[in-house]
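Priority: medium. Attachment 1 of 2:
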């Protein structure tokens, strides 16, 4: 903590003593920084000129507020020219240059160091529909671009999300990716694809290969303003690649331990002057690091961009994915410990399966209207089909010295989501002060068909813990269980008001009308309810210097007592569960952007949790529970030299049950003051990266603190520390070879535990990846 305090003090000191500046960050189509680009500002004949440095950044000081014309040019690229509004205090703009028509080979110079984990000038699309940079958002939002995923060796979304401060990921039931942050996990974290949420995390989240993604956006704290009910702890939004105006090919091939391999190829094709298209595909497969646990994932994605008029842009996206997983679920604790002899064993049934088919599609239209208005419309649809057969409970029995395998789960799902959202955006002035606002309307219809088997707890096998006999599916047929229809209408609005040259107020509100119809089988007696939640965020941002600010915000989200698809007639009697967060923080850069940092303090309170207690010796459901979390998150990126980058983040969280009772042996037992399961107190990462000519060397040390496996806080699992290293060589013509070692200390650990078992993470492994961009 002392070292953290010193780093923070140095960061804030540097922020306080910078001069006024206008920052322009210039990148190419791949996100690489462009050095030696000429940057001009012109206003009524007055011209200011500079060039970008090796980090692709150009700085102007003492620029008069007002409208300027910004011109950015570089040999081999098309000239970029656009009006730019320079505000008093801090102004920042990101510029992406596209390659000019090919006449001769062009050598593109990019930033000497690795990609940035902190991108304060990037548009904050994952946290607001306003056109503002991440720096001006009064909330914590992390952007993980494709380049950073490649650089850190993130093969899947769950590996990429851990690049965000304080995020812990795991793989759970049926290979469902799980996310945890700020003291919350499971369905408290919403998962989106291109802004579309099919359902709660446990219902629709599936493995995702990072090759097809442009970036991942991680919004911390209540996110209902953006994504509707749910997301009290945060939201993860995975954004697909989209077409560019230049011809390009991305390719990847990788092979590693456990018979793992990945391939990916993407084609970007300019069809006409105002029409371009893109196609991406990826395939990954592994034998698994436990026996009998192969996995396969296939994805195809296509997109098209057409500009029939200068003011009209139309985009279409389509994605198909399917995964087939012979799941490894968990390893039982032997006498309360992980026995190394069980490390590669799989106790699940031999013919288990988890087959999933996910499709997404959307059509987006953007129209620029007179008087500064613009309209954005997004029509979307998604489907999800799943077949699932697993045993999901593993417990060592000391009396028999056997492992009891039970809890047979049979599930099928068939979901269809369709919807449309439209919003209008305008920048104007109110009483002479700039106002930037968005307002919109959204409709969704979610149809969810469910089936399975409810008697799995009565089926049990007992096997040798070190040589388990094969178990097979008992051959029970699926039973139709319920049809659920969720119709949602929402109205929302956001605005940013520049009250003074340094102070901005940023806020938004969302009203929803959620109509739920739950049809159980075989009775077919419909249970219906309507919910009318109001959620939103209000905050302020104060520029203490042109390169740094302070912010504060209050946000609110709501969730049902359990996921909407499970709200039968008895559960519909209860109201939605509110969650509230206060957040205070700072974001800034110093020393000519050699140092970037963010720090945030948060306090989240979730009330009216549904708990079961004894009332007059009768088991009774009551909405009286409460859970809280508080903590600090710090993220810093330093560039001591042109070729050395050090990225570090640190998160400390205190999560507690405030009002929570469980029935134990026929008695009400208070859990007040206890920590919820699988919530670490401390999570930190340290990644130094060094470039030596064409060679890049990096290492990541990661520590996740101790966690509890039960609400009684009797099953404690210790902290774990892992070490990953990488060496990469950059060949000519865009080819790069990376050799990566993972978990080099061969740590036996599990990020997610229960009282009796935990899912172990892979042992020491290696992989080689070759990428080539044409």
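Attachment 2 of 2:
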């Amino acid at each position: 903590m002392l070292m953290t305090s010193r780093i923070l003090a140095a960061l804030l000191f540097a922020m306080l003593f910078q001069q006024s500046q206008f920052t322009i960050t210039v990148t190419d189509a791949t996100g690489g920084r462009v050095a030696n680009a000429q940057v001009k500002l012109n206003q009524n004949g007055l011209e200011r000129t500079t060039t970008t440095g090796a980090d692709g950044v150009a700085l102007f000081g003492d620029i008069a507020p007002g409208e300027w014309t910004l011109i950015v040019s570089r040999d081999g690229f098309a000239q970029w020219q656009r009006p730019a509004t320079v505000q008093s205090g801090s102004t920042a703009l990101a510029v992406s240059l596209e390659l000019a028509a090919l006449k001769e080979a062009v050598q593109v110079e990019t930033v000497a160091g690795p990609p940035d984990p902190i991108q304060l000038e990037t548009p904050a699309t994952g946290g607001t529909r306003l056109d503002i940079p991440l720096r001006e958002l009064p909330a914590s939002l992390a952007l993980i671009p494709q380049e950073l995923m490649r650089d850190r060796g993130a093969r899947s979304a769950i590996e990429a999300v851990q690049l965000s401060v304080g995020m812990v990921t795991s793989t759970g039931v049926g290979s469902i990716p799980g996310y945890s942050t700020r003291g919350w996990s499971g369905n408290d974290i919403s998962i989106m694809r291109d802004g579309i949420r099919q359902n709660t995390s446990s219902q629709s989240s599936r493995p995702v290969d990072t090759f097809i993604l442009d970036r991942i956006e991680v919004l911390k704290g209540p996110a209902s303003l953006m994504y509707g009910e749910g997301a009290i702890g945060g939201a993860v939004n995975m954004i697909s690649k989209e077409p560019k105006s230049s011809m390009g090919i991305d390719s990847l091939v990788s092979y590693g331990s456990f018979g793992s391999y990945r391939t990916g190829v993407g084609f970007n094709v300019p069809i006409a002057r105002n029409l371009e298209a893109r196609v991406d595909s990826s395939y990954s497969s592994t034998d698994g690091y436990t026996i009998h646990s192969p996995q396969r994932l296939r994805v195809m994605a296509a997109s098209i961009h057409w500009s029939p008029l200068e003011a009209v842009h139309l985009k279409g996206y389509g994605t198909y994915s399917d995964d087939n997983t012979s799941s490894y679920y968990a390893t039982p604790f032997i006498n309360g410990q992980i026995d190394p002899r069980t490390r590669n064993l799989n106790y699940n049934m031999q013919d288990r399966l988890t087959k999933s088919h996910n499709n997404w599609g959307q059509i987006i239209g953007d129209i620029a209207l007179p008087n500064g208005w613009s309209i954005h419309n997004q029509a979307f649809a998604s489907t999800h089909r799943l077949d699932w057969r697993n045993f999901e409970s593993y417990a060592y029995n000391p009396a028999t010295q056997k492992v009891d395998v039970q809890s047979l789960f049979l599930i099928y799902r068939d979901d269809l989501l369709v919807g449309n959202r439209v919003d209008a955006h305008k920048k104007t002035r109110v009483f002479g002060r700039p106002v930037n606002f968005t307002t919109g309307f959204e409709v969704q219809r979610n149809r969810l068909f469910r089936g399975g088997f409810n008697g799995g707890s009565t089926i049990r096998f007992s096997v040798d813990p070190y040589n388990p006999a094969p178990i097979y599916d008992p051959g029970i047929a699926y039973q139709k269980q319920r049809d659920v229809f969720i119709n949602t209408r929402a109205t929302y609005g956001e605005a940013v008001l520049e009250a003074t040259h340094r102070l901005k107020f940023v806020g938004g509100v969302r009203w929803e009308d959620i109509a739920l119809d739950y049809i159980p089988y075989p009775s077919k007696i419909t249970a219906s309810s309507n919910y009318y939640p109001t959620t939103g965020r209000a905050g302020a941002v104060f520029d203490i210097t042109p390169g740094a600010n302070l912010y504060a915000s209050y946000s609110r989200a709501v969730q049902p007592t359990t996921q909407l698809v499970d709200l039968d007639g008895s559960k519909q009697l209860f109201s939605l569960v509110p969650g509230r967060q206060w957040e205070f923080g700072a974001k800034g850069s110093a020393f000519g952007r050699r140092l970037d940092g963010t720090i945030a303090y948060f306090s989240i309170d979730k009330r009216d949790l549904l708990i079961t207690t004894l009332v007059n010796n009768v088991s009774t459901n009551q909405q009286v529970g409460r859970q809280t979390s508080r903590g600090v998150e710090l993220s810093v990126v330093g560039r001591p030299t042109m070729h050395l980058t050090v990225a570090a983040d640190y998160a400390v969280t205190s999560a507690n049950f405030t009002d929570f009772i469980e029935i134990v042996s026929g008695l009400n037992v208070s859990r007040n003051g206890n920590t919820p399961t699988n919530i670490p107190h401390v999570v930190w990462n340290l990644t130094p990266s060094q470039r030596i000519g064409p060679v890049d060397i990096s290492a990541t040390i990661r520590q996740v603190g101790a966690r509890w496996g039960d609400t009684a806080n009797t099953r404690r699992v210790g902290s774990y520390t892992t070490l990953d290293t990488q060496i990469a060589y950059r060949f000519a013509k865009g080819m790069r070879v990376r050799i990566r070692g993972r978990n080099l200390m061969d740590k036996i650990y599990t990020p997610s535990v229960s009282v009796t078992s935990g899912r172990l993470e892979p042992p020491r492994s290696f992989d080689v990846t070759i990428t080539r961009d044409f």
